[in-house]
Design goal:
Length: about 500
C-alpha cells in the first residue's frame, strides 16, 4: 500500500480522501480513481498525491488513460514512464464492452464494440439458415484516438433475416459466452409480431435485472433516459457533467460493466436521454457542454439518426415490422416555455402525418400526460403540450401511444380526450436506481399498473394488420411478471 510524505498547506480532509483513494486503487477499485481525480481538480499543490495515484494506476496497466490525466493535472509524463514506474506489459487484446447490435435496418446492421488496445477488427457472419456460407466483413482499426471503439457496418443483407457472427481481433476469435446474433428488419412496412423491452434510470450496472432482460431475447431494447448518471465530485462542488473527459469516462465505466454485457449482446438497442445522461440535474438547453454531451451520446449509441441538419439533438425515428417509433429529445432545446422546441415539434407532427404504422410509439425521457406530476414533465409546458394534443385530434392521427421514464416508479396512464380515443402512456422506471416508494398514483393511472420497485417493461406487438394488438407487461428484477395490459389498435382510432 502506498504511503504519503508529510505535506503542508493541504486540507487534512482532502488529504485523507486522497490516501483513501490510493488504498482503493491498490485493491483494484476504479471508483478510487474517480474520487482522487476530483480531489486533484480542486487542490493543485498535491504533487505527491498525484504521483502516487498515477503510479498505482500504472500498476494496473492503465498507462494511456491515467498518464494523460496526470499530465492534465500538472505531473510530468516522463516521471511516469521513466523514473516513476516501469511500463506495464501489454495485455492480450480483448473486448472491453460489447458487441452491441445497433438500430435495425432491412439491408444491413451495425455492430458497436470497444476493445482494450489497438487491434484490427473483423467480423465473420452467416445466415442462420445457411451456416455453411460464411462471410467476412472489411477490416476496422481500433485506435486510441477513438478509445478503441468501433462501429462496424455490414451491408448487402436481406430483410427479415437472422445472422450469427463471431468477432476477430488481430485474427483471433474472441471467446464470448453468449450466442451472438443480429437481425434485419422487414421491408415495406408490413406489420408482423415482435417484442421490444423498455426501461430507464440505470444508476448502477452491476444488477441482476440485465440478465433477466437478456433471457427474454427481445427484438430490441429502448433505453428511456438516465441510462448513465454523471455523478457529483467527492467534494459535492460540481460533477462529471462539468468535464467532457469525465463524462466520457463515466460512459466507459458503465458500458464495460460485466453484468450489462449479456443484454448488450442479445438484441438491438435504441436510446433517448434525460437530464442525468445529458448534463446536471434538471438541465435544459442552456447547459454549456451540451454539444460535447451529444457527441458522447453518438459515440456510445447507434440510433438511426440525430436531429435535423439545422437542429441538433437525439430525436429520430425508425420503423420496424409496421410500427413507427419516434424518439424525442426533451433536453437540448428546452427553455422556460417549451420542452421540445418548435422545430422538433414540427418534425414530430410531420412524421405522424406521414406515418402508415399500425401503432405510432412516441418515446421521451420525461412524463408527458401526468397532470398530477409535481416534478419535471410536459405538463409544465402547457401551451406546447396542449397545442400538440389539439393538433393530434384535429388531424385524426390513429394508433398513437407514449413511453417515458424518469420518475423512479412505473405506471400506465390513460389520458382522456373529449370526442376521440384516450392517449396511453407507459412510464417505466427505474431499472437499477432507487425506487421512489413514497410516490403517489396519478388520477390517470390505470388500476393495477403502479409499481414502486426496480422493473422493466416489454411491448409485445401481436395479431395481424386487421387485428393488431399490443400487450404491455411489467417485470421485476428476477423476471417475474407484475402486471399486463392489452391495447387494441382498433381502440386507438
Amino acid at each position: 500500500m502506498w504511503g504519503l510524505p508529510p505535506s503542508t498547506g493541504v486540507d487534512p480532509l482532502l488529504r485523507k480522501k486522497g490516501v483513501h483513494s490510493i488504498v482503493r486503487l491498490s485493491s483494484g477499485s476504479r471508483r478510487g480513481d474517480l474520487c482522487a481525480f476530483q480531489v486533484l481538480r480542486t487542490i493543485g499543490q498535491m504533487v505527491a498525491l498525484r504521483s502516487k495515484i498515477a503510479l498505482t494506476c500504472l500498476a494496473h496497466g492503465e498507462i494511456r488513460v491515467y498518464g494523460r490525466r496526470s499530465v492534465l493535472q500538472g505531473l510530468a509524463y516522463g516521471f511516469l514512464v521513466a523514473g516513476g514506474a516501469a511500463r506495464p506489459t501489454r495485455a492480450a487484446v480483448s473486448l472491453a464492452a460489447g458487441p452491441m447490435p445497433g438500430c435495425l435496418r432491412p439491408d444491413g446492421a451495425t455492430l458497436w464494440l470497444q476493445g482494450n488496445a489497438p487491434a484490427k477488427l473483423r467480423v465473420e457472419y452467416w445466415d442462420v439458415l445457411a451456416p455453411q456460407k460464411r462471410m467476412l466483413s472489411g477490416e476496422y482499426a481500433l485506435t486510441a484516438v477513438e478509445d478503441y471503439i468501433a462501429y462496424l457496418r455490414i451491408g448487402g443483407l436481406g430483410p427479415s433475416r437472422r445472422y450469427a457472427y463471431r468477432v476477430l481481433l488481430d485474427g483471433v476469435v474472441q471467446v464470448i459466452p453468449e450466442p451472438l446474433l443480429f437481425r434485419t428488419s422487414g421491408a415495406g412496412g408490413i406489420y408482423a409480431p415482435f417484442k421490444m423491452l423498455a426501461g430507464s434510470c440505470a444508476y448502477t450496472k452491476d444488477a441482476p435485472i440485465f440478465e433477466s432482460m437478456a433471457r427474454q431475447r427481445p427484438d430490441g431494447m429502448l433505453w428511456l433516459g438516465d441510462n448513465v448518471y454523471f455523478q457529483r465530485s467527492a467534494l459535492l462542488i460540481t460533477g462529471e457533467w462539468a468535464s467532457a473527459e469525465a463524462m466520457h469516462n463515466r460512459y466507459r465505466l458503465d458500458r464495460q460493466a460485466a453484468a450489462l454485457q449479456p443484454l448488450l449482446r442479445c438484441t438491438h438497442h435504441y436510446a433517448v436521454w434525460d437530464d442525468h445522461d445529458y448534463g446536471p440535474n434538471d438541465a435544459d438547453g442552456g447547459y454549456t457542454l451540451k454539444r460535447e454531451s451529444l457527441d458522447l451520446f453518438k459515440r456510445f449509441w447507434d440510433n438511426p439518426g440525430y436531429g435535423l441538419p439545422d437542429t441538433p439533438g437525439v430525436f429520430t425515428r425508425f420503423e420496424h415490422n409496421g410500427v413507427d417509433f419516434f424518439l424525442l429529445d426533451d433536453r437540448y432545446h428546452r427553455t422556460g416555455d417549451q420542452m421540445l422546441g418548435e422545430k422538433q415539434t414540427a418534425w414530430l407532427k410531420d412524421g405522424l402525418l406521414r406515418s402508415r404504422g399500425v401503432f405510432k410509439v412516441v418515446a421521451g425521457g420525461n412524463q408527458m400526460f401526468n397532470d398530477d406530476n409535481r416534478f419535471e414533465g410536459w405538463n409544465r409546458f402547457v401551451r406546447e403540450r396542449e397545442d400538440f394534443v389539439r393538433w393530434l385530434s384535429a388531424n385524426r392521427i390513429r394508433g398513437v401511444l407514449f413511453l417515458s421514464g424518469d420518475r423512479h416508479f412505473t405506471e400506465l396512464l390513460r389520458y382522456e380526450r373529449p370526442g376521440t380515443y384516450p392517449l396511453y402512456e407507459l412510464t417505466c422506471s427505474p431499472l437499477t436506481s432507487k425506487a421512489y416508494k413514497e410516490a403517489q398514483k396519478a388520477s390517470a393511472t390505470v388500476p393495477g399498473t403502479f409499481v414502486t420497485e426496480n422493473n422493466f417493461a416489454s411491448l409485445e406487438f401481436g395479431g395481424g394488420a386487421t387485428d393488431a394488438r399490443l400487450l404491455l407487461r411489467c417485470w421485476n428484477i428476477q423476471g417475474k411478471q407484475l402486471w399486463e395490459q392489452k391495447i387494441l389498435a382498433a381502440n386507438l382510432q
